[in-house]
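Exercise 3.2. Students should predict the tertiary structure of the chain below and write it as structure tokens, then compare their answer with the key that follows.

Predict this chain's 3D structure.
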Amino acid sequence: MDEEYDVIVLGTGLKECIISGLLSVDGLKVLHMDKNDYYGGESSSLNLNQLWKRFRGDEKPPESLGASKEYNADMIPKFMMANGSLVRVLIHTNVTKYLNFKAVDNSFVYNQGKIYKVPATDVEALKSPLMGLLEKRRARKFFIYVQDYEDGDPKSHEGLDLNSITARELIAKYGLEDNTIDFIGHALALFNDDKYLDHPAMDFVKRMKLYAESLARFQAGSPYIYPMYGLGELPQGFARLSAVYGGTYMLNKPECKVEFENGKAVGVTSEGETAKCKKGVVCDPSYLPDKVKKVGKVARAICIMNHPIPDTNDSHSAQVILPQKQLNRSSDMYLFCCSYSHNVVPKGKYIAFVCAEAETDNPETELKPGIDLLGPVEEIFYDTYDRYEPTNNHAEDGCYISTSYDATTHFTSTVEDVLEMYTKITGKALDLSVDLSAASAAQEE
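Answer key:
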């Protein structure tokens, strides 16, 4: 291992694989190592036997659940916004040719004890049972304002400067009720707490526009898409991309130790051999525990069922967002459901996840509001994992550490982290102004 590389990437989680692919496409010489013997790291998809081994030790899964290999249970379940930045990254890098996607059937929000379809346009707002008649009219006006808003067209701004007024002030102009604000902010703009209300309204409006554009993209019941055979396909797609552009992969490398000279990362040692790097090391928090701090914990339940989530129009795939206020929590809870229609379980089976930022030490009790919406469950696994953020100065030590995955069941925060790391390493922003029509070929009807 005497070769010198531009960058060494440790861990094959989704974030690390995307970075590896992007840097390889840019012409950098990348070495990618992992202590595991499989791709995906924390974001891998497990078959039934792996799921059992991880959560139940030596116990064997019941035969009634079907063949182990037909299961692809995501450890970090998330849907992708059809017009979002992850899809743009996939098209920019041409990883779409390694994957097939299918639209997610529906998107729901929990409100006063019930599940409702998320209205995303002025037309849907008028039909939604979420609001009374007068509120529907107010919401419709607000949706029209958002749909018509164009950065470069002052006529569409109605005299408002979205960079100087807050989301709260913009919403107040339309007199919307608290319940309406709740579903717009959390199920459309996808904020996971209410802090956004006191930030400039621009981000809020852009997120709502992205939701509506994504919804229009495939004319489906939700703005989301999801890969056939689960998210474990994504890291592998980016790994193949990196290899095509000359990236080198080494799995099953024990004790990958980052080497420093004068405080700067200069290489990685494994099994007595050291690989050198010029620009630094990219890794997940587990590889440099002394350069990260714990910032929270995610609680989740993985549920195997033989029916869709009740009250979701028999959706084979769906997201349900439970806004924080509805549950007296300080952040949202998420339901993610997929089925055999995306090839992640055998025919007739469904897999659902209930995820939330842990606010107690008892996931069974904490996740109960989400679990109660699922109906009868055949098997359930509870789990918690800690979330970490880097504390180092990358400019000084050449270490680019990803943040841990949060509880959200969409990719907003994941891609923001990846694009930030990319800019730190290369000194430039990734150009994502791609022609999205080209991606329609990647969508499997």
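Discussion points: The first helix runs from residue 14 to 25. The chain is about 30% helix and 25% strand.
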